[in-house]
């Protein structure tokens, strides 16, 4: 069943292997731009799972998503400014595209309900439920943030934790910011000037 307590799920997942001294969470995304909801999700993951650090991870070539905003280097610089005033936040760039690879070595994987829907959809595994189930066995416990209209996890598979978030964050998205809801940008993203009036102020990335 869905794990009722994130810290218990993390502890159970680590049983039988050497316990790390630092609990870490992988939070992959394009962060184009980073929003107040991204920060709320990261904070909820830290609190519920008792994490010491949450890494915001940007893939050089994100699977199933083409970035229409600033290139990765520019977005990473903004993320580092967020982490600069939040010591529990980390920033990492990866060449991995699959979530199971991105999350390797972490105690938890943090996802929005839209990414969770991808993770459990056999279509992303060539239609193979066996390959999907193998990935679900290999990923660490998953913390899922509500994101209407995507369905939240139900009773199966185990090691899935629902994050407790203000319902107001459910409608916040980077795409909405790019379409004009600039008030949803993280403060550091707004200050960077990279996203102005909902549109990127620098040449767009075509390969990320």
Architecture blueprint of SSEs:
Elements: H1 6-14, E1 24-28, H2 36-49, E2 53-59, H3 72-84, E3 89-94, H4 99-102, E4 108-112, H5 113-120, H6 129-138, E5 142-145, E6 160-162, H7 174-178, H8 187-192, E7 195-196, E8 199-200
Parallel strand pairs: 1-2, 1-4, 2-3, 4-5, 5-6
Antiparallel strand pairs: 7-8
Structure description:
With 208 residues, the chain is α/β, with parallel strands linked by helices. The chain has one domain: HUPs (Rossmann fold), CATH 3.40.50.620. It has helices at residues 6-14, 36-49, 72-84, 99-102, 113-120, 129-138, 174-178, 187-192; strands at 24-28, 53-59, 89-94, 108-112, 142-145, 160-162, 195-196, 199-200. The chain has a 6-stranded parallel β-sheet. Strands 7-8 form a two-stranded antiparallel ribbon. β1, α2 (36-49) and β2 form a beta-alpha-beta unit. It is globular. The chain starts with 5 loop residues before the first helix and ends in an 8-residue tail after the last strand. Residues 202-208 have low confidence and may be disordered.
Characteristics:
208 residues; Rossmann fold; 6-stranded parallel beta sheet; two-stranded antiparallel sheet; 8 strands; disordered C terminus
């Amino acid at each position: 069943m869905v794990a009722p307590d994130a810290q218990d799920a993390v502890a159970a997942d680590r049983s039988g292997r050497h316990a790390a001294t630092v609990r870490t969470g992988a939070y992959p995304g394009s962060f184009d731009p980073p929003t107040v909801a991204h920060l709320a999700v990261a904070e909820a993951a830290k609190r519920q799972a008792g994490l010491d650090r949450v890494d915001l991870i940007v893939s050089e070539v994100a699977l199933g998503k083409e970035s229409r905003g600033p290139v990765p280097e520019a977005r990473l610089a903004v993320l580092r400014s967020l982490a600069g005033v939040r010591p529990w936040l980390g920033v990492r760039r990866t060449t991995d595209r699959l979530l199971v690879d991105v999350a390797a070595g972490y105690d938890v994987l943090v996802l929005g309900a839209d990414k969770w829907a991808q993770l459990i959809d056999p279509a992303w595994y060539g239609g193979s439920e066996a390959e999907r189930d193998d990935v679900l066995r290999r990923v660490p416990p998953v913390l899922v943030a509500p994101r209407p209209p995507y369905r939240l996890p139900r009773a199966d598979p185990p090691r899935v934790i629902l994050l407790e978030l203000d319902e107001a964050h459910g409608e916040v998205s980077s795409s909405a910011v790019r379409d004009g809801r600039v008030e949803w940008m993280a403060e550091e993203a707004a200050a960077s000037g990279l996203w102005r009036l909902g549109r990127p102020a620098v040449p767009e990335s075509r390969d990320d």
